[in-house]
Amino acid sequence: MRLKAGIILAYFFQGCEMKSNGFEELVAIQLAVRSWPGQAKLSAEDLGLKEDEVPEIFRLGNKRLYPEEWRQTFNQLAGKARSFLNDHSFPFVVEYVRAIPSGIWPKWWSV
Fold first, then answer.
1. Rg of the chain in Å (alpha carbons)
2. What pLDDT, on the 0 to 100 scale, is given for residue 19?
3. In this structure, are strands 39-41 and 62-64 parallel, antiparallel, or unpaired?
4. What is the pLDDT of residue 18?
5. CA angle 57-59-60, nearest 5°?
6. Residues forming a β-bridge with 91
7. Which residue range forms the structural domain that includes residue 83?
């Protein structure tokens, strides 16, 4: 959808002389890191019980589907990515967006 909107805007402004807003030499970067929670609801069978052995007033919790070390490793990598971005860029006009000069973008892309 974004690509179509960009193409439509490019067509609309084709031939228009636009004034510089100072952002042409910048690349805006927004780092969005999300992870799958890796949890599922516990069932009575998971605890070695029958369904009727669990009173209705109780709610069984969740079970983790992958080791905690994996979650910690992922969070460490996400933290390193955020630190790198914050150390090598500057704040942009939009919250949670960072900017770098477009000339150094190829160097970043190859890292």
1. 24
2. 57
3. antiparallel
4. 53
5. 140
6. 98
7. 19-109
7 is a domain residue: no
- The total number of structural domains in the chain stands at 1
- How many helices (DSSP H) and strands (DSSP E) are in the chain? 3, 5
Q: How far is 87 from 93, CA to CA, in rounded Å?
A: 17
Give residue 93's pLDDT: 82
Domain membership of residue 65 (yes or no) is: yes
HSE at residue 14, side-chain half, CA atoms within 13 A, is: 7
The alpha carbon torsion through 51, 54, 56, 62 (nearest 10 deg) reads -90
Q: What is the dihedral of CA 16, 21, 23, 29, to 10 degrees?
A: -90
Tokens of 42: 């516990």
Task: Decide: pTM greater than 0.85.
Answer: no
Q: Is residue 8 part of a domain?
A: no
3-state secondary structure of 41: strand
pLDDT mean by block of 10 residues, the chain; 111 residues: 46 53 76 90 91 88 93 94 90 85 71 61
